[in-house]
Amino acid sequence: MEHKTLPAGNHINRASIRVRFVKLLFISALMAILFGVQVINVYGVQRFPKPEFESGYTQPETLQPSARAEMLAFLDIFVLAAALVLVSWLVLKKRSRNLVFLVSVLSMIYFGFYRKGCICSIGAIQNVSLAITDSSYVIPLTAIAFFILPLIFTLFFGRTFCAGVCPFGAIQDLISFKPQKLGTRLTTVMSLIPYIYLGLAVLYAATQTDFIICRYDPFVGIFRFDASIGMFIFAGTFLISGVFIARPYCRFLCPYGVLLNWISRFSWKHYTITPAACIQCRLCEDSCPYDAIDMPVTDKNPQSKSATVRKLIVICLLVPFFTVLGGWTVSRMHESLAGLNKHVRLAKSLLNPSTSPDQPDTFEVSAYKTSGKPISQVYTDAALVLRKFYLGGWILGCFLGFVFGIKLANLLITRYKTDYTPNKGACFSCTRCGDYCPVKMNNDKKMVHEN
Question: How far apart are CA 423 and CA 294, in angstroms?
């Protein structure tokens, strides 16, 4: 009688049923709480009047952080480092998806719901950008640690931060019940969005305009149970789509993921699908919901020397062309990009005052009228900001054009592989694919096959 071997992790056992039940219970409770908070915000009674800023309001003096705040900062750094060490060990040594998932839930509870999603490694990009361009800005120690530590661990062990430490990834994993693969073309196009978001976040932070990552963070409002209606809908869109598209925020929006992607390509020890040699069983072929497994390419068709030279010339011309084109294009948009800056907004409001007597002054105009600042200084400040955005537009455009050119050049390059291997840049080190591999290591470190 023929015995058919099922891929490990493909069958539904009691453990997987319990995990799905826990996910459903957690998500149901979370959505009920968020819905209740929104109802209270909409229909609740305003117990305290909103502060009046137009009638002699004085900004309170900034106080030094208390000793408790400093201790919490060191505790956050310690928990981050400990979680990175634990998850890296679970990924590379234990190769256990269940344990990695458990740690990710604990990380979500601590960094997400307990620490209110702040400070996070994603938002720290803005703190670092501002500190580099503004010498007067004192960057918090936690921002430095949360920015650097995951990058260091990624350089050594791959994206283990994404696997089980990032609370944003954990909350998306909780609702990932029926992840479907997207087409290669769609994935490639949408993967350009994080580069745009990263460039804009650095530009607005460096010009002291805004911290757009924090302002438009879809999950912080959920962690704090105080999301506005708009952000509640924004976060709900990600969570609902996350049921069918694995980690949509991580793959198609997260700016910190761009840095992790780059560094992970040079990682010293990265998670592998099999602990030993690949036996070409093909059981892991469809196991990754992130499309992060590179399939074997064994059909070698050696090209002529002239064809290889032509391809190399095209690549050498393609990348610089799109780099310059991108820089020129975005620099033309510098005035529109600078429209969010408060100095530019004020200058535009004074140049084009409202002709309607019923329309109240904007906050910037009201503040200017009480400041006593000469109007010439307002225009000088706005002109300085516009120059910064013009230079930043060139840098941002060249960066985006370079990325686009590199992605096109990669389409012309064929890399021959004989095994199924994780794409070191795109892989989240979640260890899902390892459950499908029949090659295991026993307690004596010997290779065995599961039947």
Answer: 6
Domain boundaries, the chain: 14-42+75-296+421-449, 305-354+362-411
pLDDT at position 3 over 70 = no
CB of 151 closer than 8 Å to CB of 263: yes
Name all contacts of 211-216 with Cβ < 8 Å and 24+ positions apart.
211/123, 211/126, 212/126, 213/122, 213/123, 213/125, 213/126, 213/255, 214/118, 214/123, 214/126
Instruction: Report pLDDT for 66.
Output: 55
Tell me the CA end-to-end span of the chain in Å, nearest whole number.
Answer: 15
Query: Beta strand 447-449 with 293-294: parallel, antiparallel or unpaired?
Result: unpaired
pLDDT per residue as tens digits for the range 60-80: 444 454 555 778 889 999 999
Can you tell me the mean pLDDT for 101-118?
92
Single-letter residue type at 33: I
Where do the H-state alpha helices sit in 243-290? 248-252, 256-264
Residue 276, CA distances (Å) to 170, 335, 346, 420 in order: 29, 56, 64, 12
Residue 444 pLDDT > 80 = no
- Overall average pLDDT of the 278-284 stretch: 84
Q: For strand 439-441 and strand 447-449, is the pairing parallel, antiparallel, or unpaired?
A: antiparallel
Give yes or no for a contact between 223 and 388, defined as CB atoms under 8 angstroms apart.
Answer: no
CA distance to 63, 208, 370, per residue, from 60 (Å): 9, 22, 18
pLDDT at 377 over 80: yes
* Tokens linked to 56: 């002699």
List, in sequence order, the alpha helices (H) in 44-166.
67-89, 97-107, 124-133, 141-157, 160-164
Question: Percent of the chain, pLDDT > 70?
Answer: 78
344: Cα separation from own chain's centroid: 29
HSE on the CB side for 385, CA within 13 Å? 25
The whole-angstrom separation of Cα 111 and Cα 222 is 13
- 285-311 tens-digit pLDDT: 888 888 888 888 766 665 666 766 777
Q: Which residue has 């109802």 as its token pair?
A: 39
351/75 Cα distance (integer angstroms): 50
Average pLDDT over the chain reads 81
What is the widest separation between alpha-carbon atoms in the chain?
A: 93
Q: At what angle do helices 256-264 and 141-157 cross, to 10 degrees?
A: 30
| DSSP 8-state secondary structure symbol assigned to residue 290 | T
- Helix and strand tally (H, E) in the chain? 20, 4
What is the average per-residue pLDDT within 199-216?
94
